[in-house]
Amino acid sequence: MPTPGSIVRCRERDWVLLPGSDDDRILLRPLTGRSDEVVAISRVLSEVLAYDLPTERVSEAQFPLPTAAEVQDAQATRLLWQAARMALRDGATPLRSLGRISIRPRLYQFVPLLMALRLQPVRMLIADDVGVGKTIEALLIARELWDRGEIRRLAVLCPPYLCDQWQQELQQKFHLDAVVIRPGTIAQLERQTPAGRDMYEHFPVQVISIDWVKTARNRARFLLFCPELVIVDEAHGVAPAAETAGQLRHELVRELAAQADRHLILLTATPHSGAPTTFRALIGLIDPAFAEWDVSNLNDAQRARLARHFVQRTRADIEQGWADGLPGFPQRELRDEHYSLTPAYYNLFRDVYTFCNGLVRSGDGLREPQRRVRYWAALSLLRCVMSSPAAAVMALRKRATRLYADDDEPLDDALWQGIVFETETAEPDDEPPTAVIEQAEITFNESEQRRLAALAARAEQIARQGQDAKLHGVIDLTRRLIDDGYAPIIWCRYVATADYVAQALRQQLTDCHVTLVTGRMGEEERRAVIAAAPLDRPRVLVATDCISEGINLHERYNAAIHYDLPWNPNRLEQREGRVDRYGQQAPTVVTVRYYGLNNEVDGVVIDVLLRKAREIRRALGAHVPVPSESVVEALTQALFLRRSPNAQQLTLDLEAPATQDFHRRWDEATERERRTRTRFAQHALKLTDVQPILDATDRVLGNPAEVRDFVVTAASRLDLRVRPHPRQPEVLLVEAGPYTPAVVRDALPRQTGPLAISFLSPTPPGAEYVGRNHRLVSTLSSYLFEAALAQSRRSDGTPAVVARVGVIRTTAVNRLTVLLLTRSRYLLTLPAQQRPLLAEEALVSGFVFATGTERHWLPADEALHLLTTAQPAANLSPDEKRELAELVLNDLDKVTRDHPIWQELHRQIEQRATDLRQAYRDVRRVIQEQVRGVTVEPIFPPDLIGLLVLQPTVRSR
């Protein structure tokens, strides 16, 4: 059997024999295909059939030499070399994954990957700041482990509202075909699963709703067939908690972590959640020993050990140490805008407050759980009334509205607390939480019912008569932001408020596209309406917190208005992080706290929560989670528990004991956060450690500028119409022409009008990122490579768009020069790998004809420079081109192992194998990984893809 990496022939086609073939099967890749086009052939069946069908036998073959039949110019040959380079997936680069992803990660995003490669198994907590790109960081690790052959299956566990986002990231950016497992998809996936196999075993890449799989009836089955790598998003929600939901999540992940050889990556921007016990619980999932440590008082050995598994960086850490010449994060401009309640609305608020105050006092003689739920009922009712007249009507008239709850979980105290106070473990719910009154077992007499009905009627009258200064103010604020070039998101707490605001904006801002998104829409509908917002006209999004996580909004919006202030600063950070994040094209994003000057509820929230959160962010450069369990007491005491003897006079106690205790605990959390961010920002890894890795990758696979050059050059020869976007210079518009080959035409989406593309990552709004793995690049490279080997002519009789032989007369050389375009393969062995891996690269070698049979070989950089820059200076007739091509090809046809050309190519490829081996070792030294055992074995002979003959011009004397 030929050596893995060599060329074989089977079924009247040439293939590359891949590593990984065993006694049962042979793995083959088409000679002109990509590494994702692998065919497995039964070894036994092939040998049996070979007696009657010789074409089934796998036999040695050679890459065909070029001929002089299709001689063209330098551009045609250069384009072929570019196509061969763009077709590479298993590139001879230190990191295997970079040839298979469709984004260009920022240098700082490689740090978790380099950390992961030190670990066996990979156990990590990635806690970088909101908007830094933790999803990309985690999937870089997953893709690298996959391409190294260390994993064959992976699962992402996330809240249900994030499943679609994860599926898109896996498929579009990392080319991993993922299925979503949640209640609505189970039946279809079961039908696709072969008999005798389990769904969790069958699908290699899974995105799973953690709230689906955490239950006892689903957990056992998943654990039985759990993949080698599990990524847990929003990992703060798996810390042990009093509520049923958090406890079940924790039990699930704890059982996953109990298998010592399983790779596990936890992602969260809030690992502490305001409490050291939460942090210990999370790091205890990485290593049980960590759960026993005093994280506030680690010794040097403990700190060093934890630092191998934990990375936590602020944007300031990244901007100071990882400036890579690309646009950084946007600047966040914080603004405060305010309004004053009209007399009618203030009187409504005062009367509702008096009613709620009585509700709180009526619980003084009850047990603590009952009394606490009455607090929540009063706060919920008050909050609805101050959100909007529409939400007030919903709360006052429809108190029995049922809230979402998992069928397996009761409506317990912790669940209500999560809904009312927006704790991290609660799924965003934007319906008025009026059922909390029913939960509090409150029975209203006839007089109270009439009182509530009268309050609701007053709320309706305020809306009908236009007495809502809050609404009028936000319309004016939105108009000003749009005039300044911003596209804002208006964040509302309740569906009723969002509907109310969106309707008013549509009536008042008729030239603006207003999009409304609430929790009453399904995931697909939300994404569809957001994607439908036009990019060429003013736009505004009115939304509830149902999309404060999980949907990328920064491509269309760059400002945020908090129409309803969140009652948890963690939620405020999540909202603003939708626009202030990695990939935002605007240099500045605006975030507006919008509140009433005489709205005492807003006053309490700002003074107790949001003002301190802003101060902490300015001082620390990062958000610090609120100890949420104490928020309830702080807000309740500030609003209700210190009252004026005059029942008509509202007094707020901002220095109540609960508020003081809350701020003390928050200060302690801030100090813990400051220490951990200083210690675990991974300052030991530097820009100078990562930049050489990316440079080595670009030399083999091509950088974005080279991808662009390939696409534009190929398009010009395939009747693809490419023109600049009239308003975005970094965007190109592409559409097929009448003579575009059908296979290339099919690579463009079926749409009216041209496709907008960009070679920048992050990508400008409205454009698709085109990297080397984009379907257009992949199709162009495959088509051109196959066309060159087939030496075909187009149907109209014109020469093929690429050629394996090019001949030009040029001033770039003084003697007859030949450039050899080759593709080399290597077998790469890494420590602990069971099988070698295949690595490939496209190389350029060159020599100058000297006296007699002597040849002077050019340095590799000089040969590449000639290929990319040499231009024709004079015409050559077809006969002259053919004569020069035959001169060189006849010589190459005589090449043997003892021939100088063979010997020199052998030496160059051996040197490249040595350089590649050293590059792998350099990377492993950076990550402190074992260096011994890395081998790179070149496969001979290399594929001679093509050649370019450069004849010097005759100089006149």
TrEMBL record:
Residues 115-289 form the Helicase ATP-binding domain. Pfam families: Helicase_C, SNF2-rel_dom. Coiled coil: none annotated. It comes from the Bacteria. Keywords: ATP-binding, Helicase, Hydrolase, Nucleotide-binding. One of its GO terms (molecular function) is helicase activity. Signal peptide: none annotated. Residues 476-632 form the Helicase C-terminal domain. SUPFAM superfamilies: P-loop containing nucleoside triphosphate hydrolases. PANTHER family: DNA ANNEALING HELICASE AND ENDONUCLEASE ZRANB3 FAMILY MEMBER, SWI_SNF-RELATED MATRIX-ASSOCIATED ACTIN-DEPENDENT REGULATOR OF CHROMATIN SUBFAMILY A-LIKE PROTEIN 1. This is Helicase domain protein. The lineage of its organism: Bacteria, Bacillati, Chloroflexota, Chloroflexia, Chloroflexales.
